[in-house]
Amino acid sequence: MTTAKPVPSTEPDAGAAARPASQLGALELRGISRAYGAHTALHPLDLTIRGGEFVALLGPSGCGKTTALNSLAGLLPLTAGEIVLDGRRIDTLPPEKRGFGMVFQNYALFPHLTVRANVAFGLKMRGVGKAETTRRVDAVLALVHLGEQAHKHPGQLSGGQQQRVAIARAIVMEPPLVLMDEPLSNLDAALRLEMRSEIRRIHQEFGLTTLYVTHDQEEALSLADRLVVLHEGRVSQIGTPADLYEHPANPHVAAFMGYRNLLPLTVTSADAAGAAATGRGLTVRGTAVGDGQLREGGPVTVAIRPEDLRIAGADEPALGEAVAEIVEYHGRVLHVEAVTREGDRIHLKSSGTVRPGDALSVAVDAERALFFPEPAPSTVAATEPAGEVPS
Length: 391
Fold this sequence. Notes:
There is one protein chain. This protein is of the alpha/beta class. The protein has 2 domains: 16-246, Rossmann fold (3-Layer(aba) Sandwich), CATH 3.40.50; 261-373, CATH 2.40.50.140. Helices cover 22% and strands 33% of the residues. It has 9 helices and 21 strands. It has a 7-stranded mixed β-sheet with strand order 6-7-8-3-9-10-21, with helices on both faces. Strands 11-12-13-20-14 form a 5-stranded mixed β-barrel. Helix 5 (159-171) runs parallel beside helix 6. The longest helix has 17 residues, at 189-205. The model is unreliable at 1-19 and 376-391 (pLDDT under 50).
C-alpha cells in the first residue's frame, strides 16, 4: 500500500504555512548531455533543483530544453553525466522507476475513460487500494476544481479543463518531481493566462517541485522561481526572473527578456562615466554589461527595450531618426515599429499620437541601453550559489 501524504487544504484561506512539504530534498543534474551521432543536442548541464522550487527551462525550438526534460524523465538515455535524487543515482533506472509526474503538451488523456477514471488510472496500475484511490482522486479533483466534471469524458471538456485533468493525473501519484512540457501551447490566449495562475496555485498548494519547459518568456517569468535559458544546447544564464530581466548576461538572454532592439554598433568611447557607440546612422550612450571588455573601435551589440526607447523631446539629444511604419494600439500606449535611414527596424512605445509615415527622433537614457561586447561571452552567467551551474 502506498503511504499517503497529507492532503493540502483547498480552502481559500489556506496560508503558506499550511502548504505540505515537498517530497523532494534536492535533484542534481551533474553534467548531463545528449548527443545524436556527431550532433550534440544538449551540452553538459549542471543544475540543482531544490524541493518546492518551480524551475523553467526557457529557449527557442531546438535549444535543447525538451531534450533535457526527456533525459531527466528517462525517455532519452544520457550520453554523459548522471542524475542524483536525494543522494541516490537514478539515471540508470527506467522511466517508471523514477516516479516523476509528466504533463504533456497534447494532454494524452484516454478518450473512453471519464475524468475520474483518467486520474485514477496510474493508481490502479500500481495496485493502490480502492479506498485510498478514491480519497486521493477526490482530493486532487477538488484542488484542480474539477469535482463536478468527474463523470464526464475528455471530449466533453474545454481545453483548459482537459489540461487540469492531465495535471491531476500527474500529481495524484504524489511524485517527487512534476515535469511539464509546454503544457499551455495548445490553449488560446485567455486560457493560457488562466491556466498560468492555476498551475502556480496547484504547485504551491500541493507542495510540488516542478520543472517546466517553455519558449514563452512571459510565461516563464510569471511562473518560475528560477529560469534556465538555453541556446543551441548550452546554458546561457541561470537565475531568478528578476535577475535575468534586469541583468541579462548576453544578447541572446536579453532578446528573450524583452530587449527587442539589438543594434550592432561600434564603440567610440568607454570609460568610468559610461560608453558610447555609433553606426548605421545611430549614436547611443549606454552601460557596459557582460564579461567582455569594451574597447574603442570594437564591435558591440546595444540592447534596448521598446518601452525604454521614446520619441525625443525638442531639446533632447536623439539616438537617431526613423520613420514609423507599423503602429499597433495596445491600450494606453502605442507600439511603434519604425525604420531607420539605414533600413534597420526599431521598436518603441508611445503614449502620444503616432501615425504610419511620421518622421521620429528617438532617444534612450544611458542606463537603459545595455552594451554587450562581441563576440558574446560563451561562459555561463549564473546568479545562484557556486557549484550549481556549469563551469
